[in-house]
Amino acid sequence: MQIAVSGGKGGTGKSTVAINLAIALREHYDLVLADLDVEAPNDHLLLGVELANEEPVELFMPRFDYGKCTRCRKCAEVCEEHAIITMRDGTPFLMPNLCSGCAACEIVCPVPGAILPGKKLMGHTYLTETPYGFPLVTGRLLEGEERAMPIVSRAKKRAQGLEKELLMVDTAAGTSNTVSKALEDSRLIIAVIEPTPLGIHDGELILRLAKLMEVPAMVVVNRSDLGEVAKVREIAEKYGAEVIAEIPYSENIIRSYVEGKPIVLTDYPEAGLFREIASRVVEFLGGGE
Amino acid sequence: MQLVIASGKGGVGKSTVTASLLYLLKDEYRFVAVDADADAPNLDLLLGVERWEEERELIGAKVARINTESCIRCGICQERCPYDCIKVIDGDYVVSELTCEGCNVCGLVCPVPGTISLDEVRSGVVRKTTTRYGFPLISAQLDVGRPNSGKLVTEEKEWAKKLMGELGIEHMVVDSAAGIGCQVIASIGGADLTILVAEPTPASLSDVRRAYKVVQHFRQPAYLIINKADFNPGFTALREWAEAEGIPILGEIPYDRAIPRSMSMLKPFVEAFPDSKAADAMREIAGRVREEILK
Ligand code: SF4
Ligand code: SF4
Ligand code: SF4
Ligand code: SF4
Fold it and tell me: Which of A23, B74, B204, B219 shows the greatest Cβ crowding within 10 Å of its Cβ?
């Protein structure tokens, strides 16, 4: 089964919640954490590990055999990304940056062998053991590449392939379709929301997405003393989500972060907050030991 | 001049720095501000915008739909969708509308003509207003679950350029999205230079390095502003990296409670707390932007 940690806005402490929750949950489930914030993956930094077991994510990219191509332009017509331009005589050219690798052009090309399956590297996935008894799968988009979707989808598959009892995904910020891809199949979404006007604005979007996807959501209010928690409760209620924890702004959390020691493993009082979140999750999911 | 402010990832104070910089420069320069974070726009909130003067819907995203009446449930579409967007629900093949990329591969491989259609849907809105500070702001909001399209950002920049022409404005200041994906590439592409904002943490350093690679890809000069500069005194790697890459540091802003408080007041912190130490640092940065960048 799968759960997700998400939060509309960047920098709300989503990754901090994700790694601490994963550490707390390892006592209940055999789990894997997947960092699907492929544009800025940071869970490994917070867990103090170096990414390992790199696998490339390559996409299809058409190459034209101009000896065979009849210049019928079908490939250019079908390309939804307008990645293929044609010369006046119909000769197709690819603009690689626009190509999404969907292979629609190859499907419609009437001449066998006129389009050859080239490949382009989009990014990587990693499978890293952590000192905390669960593996971390990370997706990482290559700088200069635009498309996060294939990386999210491959990293998620790699994590699913480990067939753990619990897959916990940490998503990117925002509510675009790469976030929905990460959230898909979740039994529960934990939305990390800051009680500031900006945090609430963005938090509402993620709750709306959860509702659209028909996934139950729980809310963790982060830096709860920097704004009005009542307003977060209001939007949570509007979307039928329960506020399960309030984490105040804490020097201890920052210190533990800087020292690379997850707060849940310290004696600071904040550790208890994360253990509590974990027990609410276990209660909701049922099962586990 | 087209100037971009980027950070690699959200949450390091990029938009608060942008709002304050705009506030400090507004009397001397004429510019259009563009909020290119269509996924989670917030410059309007930080600048106290209450209404939009003009809104345009952006139709452009495409989503596949399967007609269950004519579908023969052969499963070919599911097998061939490059992004795993087709599910079987109660025996029916269904496109997951919130993840579909609209590539039409399913439509091409389906053996029953007319069963799969590719429908245009709204991807979001682009909108314009004049802020209470006098300069125009262009912003966008992507609809939930839509492809995170750089097209929205391109549309915003185009509108901004048109305004510049109409109003005789010289500069465009773009507050880029988080990440390094299509929105960021659309922000940085075509700009003259990028100001990076980062905080002294390993995560922020990792993110800003990635953003800098995008800047390098477009062969643009970059500058750095260090936010929450005193937040992690032992961490020198950010400054060392900037030095090694030859990225000039425009200034350092100390951690200051005035910043989160100003955000709740929906005002740039230099306006809300002009006597704070963060505001002092920001004025110094604005001075350098004046002298070294805008001249
Ligand atoms: S693979 Fe898809 S996006 Fe790329 S050129 Fe072919 S049709 Fe266009
Ligand atoms: S569809 Fe095939 S034959 Fe036609 S122009 Fe494209 S590559 Fe050439
Ligand atoms: S349009 Fe493309 S992404 Fe959408 S369901 Fe069809 S094959 Fe999948
Ligand atoms: S390919 Fe066409 S007929 Fe086959 S399952 Fe998909 S929609 Fe139905």
Answer: B204
Closest CA to A167 of A176, A156, A179: A156
The parts of chain A modelled with pLDDT lower than 70 are 8-12, 287-289
**φ, ψ dihedrals at A21, nearest 5°:** -65, -40
Q: How far is the CA of A79 from the centre of ligand 1 (A)?
A: 5
Instruction: Please answer whether residues A171 and A40 qualify as being in contact, where contact means their C-beta atoms are separated by less than 8 angstroms.
Output: no
CA A195 to chain centre: 23
Q: How far is the CA of B105 from the centre of ligand 1 (A)?
A: 10
The number of the ligand 2 atom at minimal distance from the alpha carbon of A86 is 5
Q: What is the dihedral of CA B164, B169, B173, B177, to 10 degrees?
A: -10
- Would the CB of B64 count as within 6 Å of ligand 3? yes
Q: What's the predicted TM-score (pTM) here? A: 0.83
pLDDT per residue over A176-226, tens digit each? 888 999 999 999 999 999 888 888 888 898 999 999 999 999 999 988 887
Helices first, then strands: H and E counts in chain A: 10, 11
Which residue has its alpha carbon closest to ligand 2 atom 3?
Answer: A69
In the sheet that holds A242-247, the strands lie side by side as A55-64, A115-129, A135-141, A31-35, A166-170, A2-6, A188-193, A217-222, A242-247
At residue B211, the 3 state secondary structure works out as helix
B148: confidence class by pLDDT, cuts 50, 70, 90: low
A103, A143, A227 member nearest B82 (Cβ) = A103
Distance CA B17, CA B121 (A): 35
Q: What pLDDT does B196 receive?
A: 96
Pairing state between β B136-142 and B116-130: antiparallel
Start-to-end C-alpha separation, chain B: 11
Interchain CB contact of A244 with B (< 8 Å): no
Q: Is the pLDDT of residue B240 over 90?
A: yes
pLDDT of residue A256: 77
H helices within B53-181, ranges in order? 76-80, 105-109, 150-167
Give the span between the Cα atoms of A208 and A211, in whole angstroms.
Answer: 5
Residue closest via CA to ligand 2's atom 2 equals A109
Q: Where are the strands (E) in B67-206, listed by range?
A: 86-89, 92-95, 116-130, 136-142, 171-175, 193-198
Q: How confident is the model at residue B187 (pLDDT cuts 50, 70, 90)?
A: confident
Position A14 scores a pLDDT of 85
Cα B19 to Cα B7: distance, rounded to the nearest angstrom: 15
Tokens of B140: 């966008």
Among protein residues, the one with the nearest Cα to ligand 4's atom 6 is B77
Say if CB A191 and CB A7 are below 8 A apart: yes
B6: tokens are 């980027």
Residue A288 confidence (pLDDT)? 46
CA A216/CA B46 separation, integer angstroms: 31
Nearest to B283 by CA among B23, B46, B31, B32: B23
The pLDDT confidence band at residue B61, using thresholds 50, 70 and 90, is confident
Instruction: Note whether A209 contacts B10, CB cutoff 8 Å.
Output: no
